[in-house]
Amino acid sequence: MRTSIATVCLSGGLVQKMYAAAEAGFDGIEIFEPDLVAAPQSPEEIRALADRLGLSLDLYQPFRDAEGVDEEAFADVLHRAEAKFRLMRRLGIDLMLVCSNVGTATLDDDEVSAGQLRRLGELAAAYDIRLAYEALAWGRFVDDYRRSWRIVELADHPNVGVCLDSFHILSRGHDPKQIEEIPAEKIFFLQLADAPALSMDVLSWSRHHRLFPGEGSFDLPAFLAHVQRAGYAGPLSLEVFNDTFRQTDPVRTARQAQRSLRWLADRTADLLGDEAGPLPRLPEVAAPEAFDFVEIKAPETSGVEVLLEQLGFDFGGRHRSKQVRLWTWGEVRIVCNDQGGSPAAPRIAAVGFDVADSEPAAERAAALMAPPVHRRTYAGEQALRAFSSPDGTEVFCSHAEDWIGEFDGGVAGTSTERGSARIDHVNLVQPWHSFDEAVLFYTSVLSLTPQPTQEVAGPSGLVRSQVMSSPAGGVRLPLNLLPTGQLAGDEQAHAQHVALACQDIVGVVAAARERGLRPLKVPGNYYDDLVARFRLSEDFVATLRELDLLYDRDADGEYLHCYTETVGEVFFELVERRERYDGFGAGNAPVRLVSQAG
Ligand code: MG
Ligand code: MG
């Protein structure tokens, strides 16, 4: 599999983009014309740099408004094209992208477009250049790949083929299955992009919101499977116009891009089975169905452990060689790490996922270029493999049985009076520049599945929430994207939380309050509204009000929950899921956000 990336995907100048692509392991790049025009280097210097970096220059793009025009306009097209062909020879590029006409087309006639592409192809042949004709989703007349292929077929010139772009095909809802009917030698190029499900005009959608495969809502494995079945053997190239990636570190974005292709190739190979051909595979790993632990970096005096005691956790002991303490409740394991006495605000530092077999999971993460985390271990201690997620939270693939013996002096056995508990979800707040990367990270590295996004109004902006979950729902990981312009005084918006599922939240909270827990205060208006929204008994609402419990109900069941106060950047949520309720009480989130901003 050869991989390529359009320079438009990355921030910086052309040379910087080239270094980033090479460093991330791309085999080639598409030169986006405005990047070359703005570069101080000559075409020969760019060509020499590509050579030195081991990058092939796969495509020159875009050439616009070429066909469907009258003869007078076409004479200008040929003039323009010839200048570009000469430039491409200086660059050593032999493939040019020709977009379907958006601006100047006046003739809605396949014969005319085909005839003009043929003549353009003849001119290109003289320069040993080939043309890849792409139907833009907003083309004036040609906006469907099936039509662009019909025109290429009619043009019938060896130097004229099609470029397939997943965005243009899937954004319009066109069935990609007919790609299989196009002869492999006529598919000159393939561009891949994902995108979120949005209802907006397709041009703005494309220019601002394209994503790397695995970050959006398109079924790219199915798309690529059709292209592979057609026999396409050229590079898998990414063409992603995205407002965020234009302003973030190009090296990091390029790595993210390369990761997306490795994931996509693997998923497509799964679909193709024996027909997968040269698509590389990743070590296979089932999604984790339980959290193994959460590590909180907090000095012993920070108050985090006071909260855990109030919630009813048992002290599980001190680590043999590190300043780390374990707290347990049922299947919940919280590790508090002294962070070397640092006064930094307590925060979630690591999440352990209970994967069936940690070795292939770590191999898979490495193959996806997840940055490894190195922690000191001593003789006789388990060396757990961990990786840094895009927001810096460390991700472990681990099993409690392997490491829990390293803690001594805790309470033997767990008390059963509070009933069992498990980690229901871990909510991680994502900085704006790494949100999409985080979705891809958890999709590809841990095989979690993104759920539809939700937006929640907070006091200082809309919070976008993307839940990543395992197939059976044992692991739920809501990722919250912060509003970009945080208002002063709403530091709370940065807080992350660990939600603990228990069986009798009323009893648990009543007991915790006796131990001194002060749950986040819920305003009286909320309960008045609750009575209006749901038919609940007065007694029940009185209990909720007394304990500051929030409530939600849908067709699947009920959800009772409450929050602790925040310590540093961490708070806890207690939840009780009744029947098959699968949400997070999203309707209650604005109440929480306002109360926390207090
Ligand atoms: Mg394209
Ligand atoms: Mg929550």
TrEMBL record:
Q: Where does Mg(2+) bind?
A: 425, 497, 573
Q: State if Cell cycle is listed as a keyword.
A: no
List the keywords (alphabetical): Dioxygenase, Lyase, Metal-binding, Oxidoreductase
UniProt pathway: Aromatic compound metabolism; 3,4-dihydroxybenzoate biosynthesis
The cofactors it requires, by name, are: a divalent metal cation
What's the Enzyme Commission number for this chain?
Answer: 4.2.1.118
The transmembrane segments are: none
The record's catalysed reaction(s) read: 3-dehydroshikimate = 3,4-dihydroxybenzoate + H2O
Domain (VOC): residue spans on this chain = 422-565
Q: Which GO terms describe its molecular function?
A: dioxygenase activity
Q: Which residues bind a divalent metal cation?
A: 134, 165, 191, 239
**Superkingdom of source:** Bacteria
Give the UniProt family note: Belongs to the bacterial two-domain DSD family.
- Biological role stated in the UniProt entry: Catalyzes the conversion of 3-dehydroshikimate to protocatechuate (3,4-dihydroxybenzoate), a common intermediate of quinate and shikimate degradation pathways.
Q: How is this protein named in the record?
A: 3-dehydroshikimate dehydratase
Q: Which organism is it from?
A: Nocardioides luteus
